[in-house]
Amino acid sequence: MLRARGAAAALLRLAGAGASAQSGGGPPLARAAFTRGFLGKKVNKEAIEKEKARLKEEIGRGYFEDIAEIRKNNGKIAAASKVIIPEVDAVKFPDLAVESPDGGALHLPLVAPAPQDVGSEAGDGVTPEAGDGVTPDASLVCLSFRASSQKMAESWSSPFLDAFGADKNIHAYEVSFIDSWLLSSSPVRQTFLKVMRKSNNPQKHVVYAFGDHYDFRKKLQIVNLLTGYIYLIDRQGRIRWQGFGSATQEELSSLTASTSILLDDK
């Protein structure tokens, strides 16, 4: 009988501790357990809602729809910029971690440090180009989400470097996205990088972005993954010109003129 009463008292004390934890009081360990559980449920709920929205978006737009759009417009899902985008209208290029076959790693866009930051570590997690520590006056960033669009990227980067190759502070980045979980895992990723093509031009960087890129694409409003996306970035990491698909002569002229303006304004 005494044992039963003792067990009942212990259960009552335990129940009281649980109720006290839910009300914000009680022992520290009980409060901590409740907080972890509450935050965990909240985070999980947000992650589930985010994934549901992503699945709805990707299911709603199929592969064949992307193909039809590419064939209809020859990869031009939108018109390229006619002139340079003014500073007041320019948006920041989202932060993107990339790796190169030579073992280097950096974050795009490369941003010049503010005057008060000179001599200190770069802020915002942005790393200067490994090797020279110089922030380009203008960078051409060409994004390829599928192998079919890599030739599109080259149609922009090669003429760009031909036109501005004499300026050492001009760089071109051909970024290929690798979303395969196997290729993104280590050490498979390192093996993959070793066998990929390298650039012999110090101003041309062939780099790779590994893992899920959904959030990055959302920031740039990228939907069709079968075409190329081209961005001219200034020293502050802002998008000052953009194009799509393969380059035309008219578009290259517009890109060249916009780049020249950036160089004159530096």
From TrEMBL:
Put simply, this protein is called Mitochondrial ATPase complex subunit ATP10
Q: Which Pfam families match?
A: ATP-synt_10
Q: Which keywords fit this entry according to its UniProt record? A: Signal
Q: Does the keyword Methyltransferase apply?
A: no
Q: Calcium among the record's keywords?
A: no
State the InterPro entries in the record: ATP10
Q: Give the residue range of the signal peptide.
A: 1-21
What phylogenetic lineage does the species belong to?
Answer: Eukaryota, Viridiplantae, Streptophyta, Embryophyta, Tracheophyta
